[in-house]
Amino acid sequence: MYPDLEPIEPTEAVEMYLAEKRSELADATLRSHRSRLSHFIEWCDEQDITNLNTLTGRDLHRYRLWRREDGNLALTSEKTQMDTIRVFIRWAESVNAVKSDLSEKVVSPTLTGDDNVRDVMVDAEEAEQILTHLCTYEYASERHVCFRLMWRAALRRGAIVSLDIQDYEPEDQALEINHRPESGTPIKNKFHGERFIGLSDETCDILDAWIADRRPERKDDEGREPLLATPQGRPHPTTIQTYLYSVTKPCFSTGECPHGREIEDCDAAADRTKASKCPSSMSPHALRRGAITHWLSSDMPETVVSDRGNVSPEILSKHYDRRSERKKMEQRRQFLDSI
After folding, report:
1. Is position 298 within any domain?
2. Does 197 share its domain with 246?
3. Which residues form the Core-binding (CB) domain (predicted)?
C-alpha cells in the first residue's frame, strides 16, 4: 500500500529518534522530548496504530484534539507538544517511516501577544520573608542553601545540581559553574553557561556553616563531592524542585493559608513532597524570574544581569523582566539631568 515506506512501530520510531538526537540535545531537553512523545505512543496504542506508515494528517489532528482534552494543558503547552511532534514527524520522513511532507500537516497553535510569557514569580518581599524564616529556623540547612543560591544568584535548577564542593571558592567569595556532561551534570547552554558567580559575605557564611556542620559526607556515583549533597549523594533535579515548592507555600513562612484550608489537615502543608499541590507554591523558574526582575528593579545594569543570570538580552526582556512600564520610566528618569 505504501511501497516507498518501511514499516515501523511507533515505540521503535520514537526510540530511534531519541537515540539520534542524543548527541544534539541537552539531557534535560531529551527528557522533555521523551516525555512529550510518550503521549503520542499512548495515543497510538489507544488508536491501534501499529505502523507509522499509515499515519495521516487527519490522524495528527485527532491526536491534537486528544491532547487538548487534558484540561490542564495550557495553550503554550499545547504548542510545545505539537512542535515536538512536528520535529519527530519530520525526522520520520527522513527514514521513510511516514509519507513525505506529513510534517507540514501538523497544526500547532499560534501564540499572540503575551501568550508565551508567564508572569508568575516570587517577588522580593516574599523572598526576603522566606529567607528570614529559613535563617531563623533552618540556618544553613539544605533548603536554606538552595533557596539562597537560587534567589541571590538566580541559578537554574541544573546548575545547583551540578555544583561540587571544589566549585566553591570561599577566599574569593565565588562559585564556578561548570558543564560536566561526561560525569552526569550538564547545564543549560552547555559550555556557554559556564561562568563565575560572585557571592556576598552572608551567603559565604551560610555555605561555610553548611559544609562544616550540616552537609552529609557523601560522593556521587562518579566519585565527585556535590556541594548540596543529600544522604543519597547528589540531589536529583526533582529534589531541588521539592525544596523550592516546600518553602514558597505561604504557610511555611507566615503560618497562614490564603486558601482557607486548615493547615493541620492539608497534605501540601504537612508533607513537603506534596507541597506542589499548594496553589500558591512556586517553581524554581518562578524564583529565578523574580530574582532577575528584582535585580533589574534595583538598577543593576541589564548587561550585568544578563551575564550573571546566563540569559541573552532578548530572552531576558521577553521571559524574565516583569517590571511595569512605569517602573522602567522612573528608572530612566534618574538619567535625565545628564541629557
Report:
1. no
2. yes
3. 8-93
Q: Please indicate, yes or no, whether the overall pTM of this predicted structure exceeds 0.70.
A: no
User: Would you say 218 and 150 are in contact if contact means Cβ atoms under 8 Å apart?
Assistant: no
Categorise residue 233: left if φ over 0, alpha if ψ from -120 to 50, beta otherwise.
left
Closest CA to 200 of 133, 263, 151: 151
Decide if pLDDT at 262 tops 90: no
Alpha-carbon distances of 228 from 79, 145, 155, 243, rounded to whole Å:
35, 8, 13, 12
The Cα–Cα gap between 229 and 235 comes to 6
Alpha helices in the chain (DSSP H): 10-21, 27-46, 57-68, 75-94, 124-137, 142-153, 157-162, 201-209, 237-248, 250-254, 267-270, 284-297, 302-309, 313-315, 325-333
Amino acid at 133: H
Tell me the C-alpha to C-alpha distance, in Å, between residue 146 and each of 14, 42, 103, 150, 230: 36, 36, 42, 6, 12
Query: What CATH number has the domain bearing residue 73?
Result: 1.10.150.130
Residue-level pLDDT at 117: 43
Q: Are residues 253 and 128 in the same domain?
A: yes
Dist. CA 58–CA 54, nearest whole Å: 11
Residue 331 clears pLDDT 90, i.e. is over it: no
Domain that holds residue 82: 10-105
| Burial class of residue 40 in the structure, from the number of CB atoms within 10 Å of its CB (0-12 exposed, 13-18 middle, 19+ buried) | buried
Per the domain annotation, does 133 fall within a domain? yes
Structure confidence by residue, pLDDT tens digits, 20-32: 988 877 777 788 8
